[in-house]
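Lecture 7 notes: from sequence to structure.

We start with a single chain of 387 residues. Read the sequence below before looking at the structure.
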Amino acid sequence: MNTRTILEGCTQALVPVVPEDQPLSISSASVFYNSQMELNRDISVAAIAAYSELIASRKQLALSNVTYVDALSASGIRGLRIAKEVGINVTLNDWSEEAYDLIKKNAELNQLTEKVRICLGNANVLLHKERYNIVDIDPFGSPTTYLDAACNSAINMLAVTATDTAPLCGAHLNSGIRKYDAVPLNVEYHSEMGVRILLGRIARDLARHEKAMNPLFCHATRHYVRAYLEVNKSAKNTDKCLKNIGFIAHCTKCSGRSVHYGLAVSIPEKCEICGNKASIAGPLWLGPLHYKDFCDSILVQLNKKEFGKKEHSVKLVELCKNELDVPTFYDQHLLSKKLGISAIPMEELLKELVTSGFEASRTHFSGTSFKTNAGLEGILDTLRRFR
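Now the structure, written as tokens:
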């Protein structure tokens, strides 16, 4: 296996060299490494550092006693960065012997041989056998194969990446139904649809273990969704958590939508605004996606460490922190096109909505998206004033 040395944060790693004429895929290298996920890993280091400090404080533990597992380690770069840049007790696992050997070389390269545990084996077997304060699963594609074991293993935090955005967001509908036990819709807020479909599946998987989740920081960036979830074991809290599961009724004609909480609910067949037949998405998560105090903690960590994608990471976390806590965003360009008017600067629209007595914010999903507690008719009335 041909390798090259890369540097992320303050951690070096040998990673496979993929020929330029080969598309990046799980089969293009014997050990997978995606340089485009450096932003994901930068934020992971900051988020896990922030939460590890919280665990250590709550349990009166030394930071080095907080346990973390990267169950699908590949080159080991994520877990090695956690070990070196955060300083907690790290386990790295992969089923591939080539990956296992490469992780050992990378641990030696960073003088971490005595500080990390490296395992060769099936991720599900490891996660069903052992429990960790923080469980991280970052597979190539869907995480659903590993969710039950990860939910079993996680004591305090579960971090999950999903890169199969086409099934999650409704572009590959049948695949999304099969993998996530839910119906995703490929609508203008498809990126948020993906986040909520994933969280809905995780909440239901955790519930089988009588565990509840509290989303601390969740985002959709380019080709993946990433979620950081606080976990606690309690039947009472699990029942409360499941009350955030429900459905979205969406009208493809007028872009109207309504949310319906519960797993067995009555949903109107027709759009309440225009009378067109509504499409139903779910079950999915309708609760919060971010916890503002935790976003602040991530920002503290981002600003005190060296990161290659610091500027982008800070901007993303700040957008999420200030995002209005309501399900589904609107796309201003799409609504303006429906009205036959030109789009206006986003800040002007947000200001006008607030002046009209509503709440409104930008979102991290796209530069043309916004969230508001105004209904569709209120939004359209606001936009018409700019004709």
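The first strand starts at residue 3 and ends at 8. Keep this in mind for problem set 3.
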